[in-house]
Each structure stands twice: as structure tokens, then as C-alpha cells.
Amino acid sequence: MLTTTDLTVEKINSLLKTAEEFAQGNTLKAADEIYVSNLFFEDSTRTKTSFDIAQRRLGLNVVPFDVTSSSVNKGESLYDTVRTLESLGINLAVIRHGKDKYYEELKDVKLALINGGDGSGNHPTQTILDLMTIHQEFGKFKGLKVGIVGDVKHSRVANSNAEALRKMGAKVYFSGPEKWFDEGTIINGTYLPIDDLVKEVDVLMLLRIQHERHGEKMKISLESYHKKFGLTLDREKAMKKEAIIMHPAPINRGVEIADELVESVRSRIFKQMENGVYARMAILKEALEEKGFKFK
Ligand code: CP
User: Fold this and answer.
1) In the chain, where are the structural domains located?
2) What is the helix, strand, coil percentage profile of the chain, to 5?
3) Phi, psi dihedrals of residue 233, rounded to the nearest 5°
4) Hey, what CATH class is 124-268 in?
5) Of 126, 128, 269, 279, which is least packed with CB atoms within 10 Å of its CB?
6) In what order do the strands lie in the sheet with 244-246?
7) Taking each helix axis from N to C terminus, what angle separates 269-290 and 124-138, rounded to the nearest 10 degrees?
8) pLDDT recorded at residue 133
9) Is the confidence metric ipTM above 0.90 for this complex?
10) Looking at the DSSP assignment, which residues form a beta bridge with residue 95?
11) Which amino acid positions bind carbamoyl phosphate, per UniProt (predicted)?
């Protein structure tokens, strides 16, 4: 699982079904001795920890890999690092890397690869947990209106989610500072001013401001961002009765979203994190089964 482009509608539905079964209490354990490792070249709390928990729940052997104390620091390439782990007996690697499409240099490796996020490219496992959260709420995607708001240009979540949601039949709208959008890319004529967007959508998906990917030209004052583009208390009041708020986190409280709304009745932000474990159990199971491993 490297991009959402690779995922068919059937595959997404299958992952959502398996993830929901895990959420309902279904348990499965690896029938084989399987070794997995999580290689995070960029920081993570949710993705790394939820993969670790998902792997342990499936009875996989998790082999720690700490980039900061590895031979990456002696200049070893990503390809040689992954080939080394493969030679040592690792069957599956989850990789997060700052470089867009880092996985292209790994196309000759044999172990199962799961993309835990590549630069501003893709975050397909976040997409599955986000779709799971939306499906739990509405039971469908077709006809739903989803608003993605914020740093779309630098967000791998926006890229992956917009593509998958459209594939599943949802209508996707965007909002945020125009200098953070690339003309003619995923926006495709669906930009709405934030005050119009909040009234229109069933799902309001806020994005973190990716300070670490901003040059001088992209910088914006955080206070003015909240007033001009954030989910303020007034904008929340204008949302549809049943509409929900999502955010992949980490959250800049008081910037993308008013502090009081993070844990409000509409918010599914912590539900998304909980679903991350079940979605990643489903993804791990299917990725390993494709390599011939069995679960019971
Ligand atoms: N949503 C997400 O990817 O969070 P982390 O960066 O903490 O993994």
C-alpha cells in the first residue's frame, strides 16, 4: 500500500469491512512467524504508535528500528537500509519519509511495504481510517459533501483523501489561503470561501498547517489564519445539524480549530485515532496475506 491511486473501490471496501470487524471485537493472530519493522524518517505519534499496537494485536514480531541510532547516520541509503532489513528476515516494513515518492527507489525489494506518509505526496493508511470514520457516521460515501480546509498544497492527507473520496462517490470541496493551492491540481474548480463551505458540507476536514514545509513566501500569521480560514465558534454554529469535524492531527489548537471545538460533540478527531489501530490491522493483514502469510 503506497498510494491511494493503487486502491480500487473494491479494495477500499474490503479494508473498511475488515477494519470494522476488528473494531467490533474480531481477533486474528498470525499463523506464521512474521517479522515487521517501522522506519520513521519523519516524526510521528499516531501513525507509528497505532501501527505498533496493530502489529502486536495481530501477533506479529515487531523489530524496533530507530533512524537516529541506525547506520542511516553513516550515510547508508534508504534502499540499502531496506535491503539490509529484508536480508535479516524482516517481512514487512512501514516507512515514513520526507521525500515525495521515496518508494520508487524501493521497487525491487521483495518485502511488503506500507507507506506511512511520503513528503507532501500520500498518506494512504490515514485515508483508510478517515474513510472508516466517515462510513461509521453516514453509512455511505455517495452524495456526501466533504470540505478539506487549510494547507492543501503541502498535505499528503489532502491528496490521498480527496482522491479516495472522489473514487467512492463523495463530492470534495476545498478552502484555505489561495497561496497554499496549486492551480489545476486536486482543487479542480471546487474552491469555496470558508464561510460558504462550512454551511455546505457533511464532513469538515481540517488540515494542520505544515510549518516545516513552508518557505518565507508561504508563511502566514497564526492569529489571522484562525480568523480568516479556521473553524471559529461562529463558523461551527453555521454547520449543518449532523455535520462532523475531522482533523488528522497533530492539531494547532486555536489555529485550524477553536480550542473548545476539538473535543466537542461534532468532533470525531479522537475517534479517527482510535480507528487508526483497526484500519492498520486490516491493512497489515491484507498486505501480509498478499505475500502468502496466513492468519487464524
Ligand atoms: N495523522 C498523523 O499522521 O499523525 P502523526 O504524524 O502523529 O503520525
Assistant:
1) 9-123+274-290, 124-268
2) 45, 15, 40
3) -60, -40
4) alpha beta
5) 269
6) 171-175, 145-149, 203-206, 244-246
7) 120
8) 98
9) yes
10) 39, 115
11) 46-47, 96, 123, 126, 249-250
Superfamily of chain region 9-123+274-290: Aspartate/ornithine carbamoyltransferase (3.40.50.1370)
The secondary structure of residue 115, as a DSSP letter, is: E
Report the nearest-CA residue for atom 4 of ligand 1. 46
Binding residues for L-aspartate: 74, 156, 208
Q: Verify whether ligand 1 is closer than 6 Å to residue 45 (CB atom).
A: yes
Q: How far is the CA of 57 from the centre of ligand 1 (A)?
A: 20
Nearest residue (by CA) to ligand 1, atom 5, is 44
Q: Which atom of ligand 1 is nearest to the CA of 48?
A: 8
Q: What is the mean pLDDT of the chain?
A: 94
Decide: 246 in ligand 1 pocket, CB within 6 A. Answer: no
Residue of 126, 207, 252 to mutate, ligand 1, most atoms within 8 A of C-beta: 126
Q: Quick check: 21 and 285 in contact, CB under 8 A? A: no
Distance 223 CA to ligand 1 centre (A): 24
The response to whether residue 161 sits with its C-beta less than 6 Å from ligand 1 reads: no
Contacts of 233 (CB under 8 A, 6+ apart): 258, 260, 261
CA angle in degrees (0–180, nearest 5) for 207-208-214: 115
On the question of a common fold for 9-123+274-290 and 124-268, the answer reads yes
239-283 residue pLDDT tens: 999 999 999 999 999 999 999 999 999 999 999 999 999 999 999
- Choose between 210 and 83: higher pLDDT: 83
